Amino acid sequence: MDAAFTAEQDEIRRTLREILGRRCGPDEVKAAVRTAGGYDRELWQQLSRQLGLPGIAVAEDYGGVGCGPADLALACEETGRVLLPSPLLATAALCVPLITALGTGAQRSALLPSLSSGGMTAALAVPGPALATALALTGGDAVGQWSGGGRAGGVQARADEAGGGWRLYGEAAQVLDGHSAELLLVAAHAGGFARSRTLLFLVREGAPGLVRSRQAVLDETRPQARVQLRDVPAELLGEQGAGGEGADVLTALAATGRTASAVLAAEAVGAAGEALARTVEYVRRREQFGRAIGSFQAVKHRLADVYVQVQAARSAAYYAAWDPDQGGLALAQALEALRTAAGEAIQLHGGIGFTWEHDAHLYFKRAASDELLFGPVHRLRAHAADRAGLFAPAAAAAAAPPAPVSPAAAVAAPPPAHEKVAV
């Protein structure tokens, strides 16, 4: 296996870093998140036209660049450095793979070219704080009860016998970029108790009965919306009996979660690396007792520990980009590294670092928000361990009754090492 980056990948990263370096300073990021859309639309169109950023992992047949999830992850490492507020995660990492996996030929042809060109953005609406569960990042039920479970709450879907199609009613409270997306991909519960299943539906901007409101959130670079569906007409993603079956939907969501976790890990590593770099630059300039505080051994040790943690997380993120099945563990390590790097940035910036307006808090808020949305870290690791069967053999051995021992074997067996033998 050749782990080196290709010339095309290096060029994408270099070009993206140059553009973002000019357009995404801390002041520009703060200004962008306070716009109605929550991001710089002009910059988004530039990234879409010049680099094909939202279509990196989309096949060329649908207007994309034709690269793979690894290229998207590498690009997101650069966007993570500057905490770029954009619809990239919701559109390219969450919705595009689901439409590709479950959509009919007509749906893919109608939606993917617009999504890959940046002409349209999309958002995945999952009921309640269940995004990590829906994407199978932290475990969950096998029948999708998080979508509504046939009871009150969540989002319910019913067939519209009069006009054909489907009708949705319910609410999703934490939808990434849900206030500005032209297309919503809504996970809803259908079939009641008799045929309980989770399906995905397409809801267009401006649909009657659709109410969206932007929420006040900790991390403004990850805008979220409350989406209310009041008997909203919707189109089933896929075909009933094919992509429309609940089992296929849950499988597609889990596969999307594995790819998205690798992308999120790379993004978190980029943010952690930048937080560390800014802290190193500060301690080189800040003087105390007539010398730079970066020359103090205690400060060096703390930054060295952060550096080792960030580099280990970067290696894990790159491996997950190549093998998305390792995305959960890589995401856990990357989120932990980001939390540590952001925390040390605040501490080592001293009194100015504790002010809420300081740039270090942008990274601290991103670390806290991502862990709330996609974690927590210990659950990511526990789920990865369960999937790998890490503790299953030990648990089975502990639960199994002891094997019978014959008298001859008992006599022949040597005494335990801790016991004294009389001679």
From TrEMBL:
- List, alphabetically, the InterPro entries matched: Acyl-CoA_Oxase/DH_mid-dom_sf, AcylCo_DH-like_C, AcylCo_DH/oxidase_C, AcylCoA_DH/ox_N, AcylCoA_DH/ox_N_sf, AcylCoA_DH/oxidase_NM_dom_sf
The UniProt record lists the Acyl-CoA dehydrogenase/oxidase C-terminal domain at 262-387
Q: Which branch of life, at top level? A: Bacteria
Q: Which organism is it from?
A: Streptomyces amritsarensis
Q: Which family does it belong to?
A: Belongs to the acyl-CoA dehydrogenase family.
Extract the SUPFAM superfamilies matched here: Acyl-CoA dehydrogenase C-terminal domain-like, Acyl-CoA dehydrogenase NM domain-like
How is this protein named in the record? Answer: Acyl-CoA dehydrogenase
Q: What are its cofactors? A: FAD
Q: Please provide the record's keywords in A-Z order.
A: FAD, Flavoprotein, Oxidoreductase
List residues of the Acyl-CoA dehydrogenase/oxidase N-terminal domain.
6-118
Q: Known PANTHER family for this protein?
A: ACYL-COA DEHYDROGENASE (PTHR43884), ACYL-COA DEHYDROGENASE FADE28 (PTHR43884:SF20)
